[in-house]
Design a protein that fits this description.
Blueprint (H helix, E strand, L loop, with lengths): L24 E12 L2 H9 L7 H14 L1 H4 L8 E11 L2 E12 L4 H19 L7 E11 L6 E2 L2
Antiparallel strand pairs: 1-3, 1-4, 2-3, 4-5
Helix pairs in contact: 2-4
């Protein structure tokens, strides 16, 4: 892995990296996040009785939409063809666990798309329960693993 800041030009200005010469390969990334919620909201999610409706399904769709719009939200991200996005949300004792798996066949990776997916899904969970739990928070947003491309595979220890 290079230590150079590849998003800067010779004058130190931010620029999108030229990926024209990179090989098109299958690239995958998995990211995760946790939404910390009160025990009361966790109970409502488990019962399916939240006032705004199906929180997990809404968050899943929002996460998919967010991943597809990553290059519009993050200034130096390349628009890429996303071949697959899956988002899993699980109610756990402390809140909601979110995992996104994104796949492309392109010249650059999908880590940012996976991170955007879990972030937007988490924000959607909070939006749908904020009246019940104003202290809700998103934590532990990170890439769990990635594969493909010239830097190869990486997995969080």
């Amino acid at each position: 892995m290079s230590d150079e800041l590849t998003h800067l030009n010779s004058s130190g200005e931010a620029n999108m990296v030229d990926v024209t010469g990179r090989e098109i390969t299958v690239r995958e990334a998995i990211a995760s996040a946790h939404v910390l919620l009160s025990a009361h909201v966790v109970s409502l999610l488990r019962d399916g009785s939240t006032p705004k409706g199906d929180v997990l399904s809404t968050a899943r769709i929002a996460g998919i939409m967010g991943a597809k719009k990553t290059s519009e939200l993050i200034p130096l991200c390349h628009p890429i063809a996303i071949n697959k996005i899956s988002i899993d949300l699980a109610v756990i004792d402390s809140g909601v666990s979110i995992t996104a798996h994104v796949i492309t066949s392109d010249r650059t990776g999908v880590e940012m798309e996976a991170l955007t997916a879990v972030s937007i899904a988490g924000l959607t969970v909070i939006d749908m329960v904020k009246a019940l739990d104003p202290a809700a928070e998103i934590s532990q947003i990170h890439v769990d693993s990635k594969s493909g491309g010239k830097n190869g595979d990486w997995k969080r220890a």
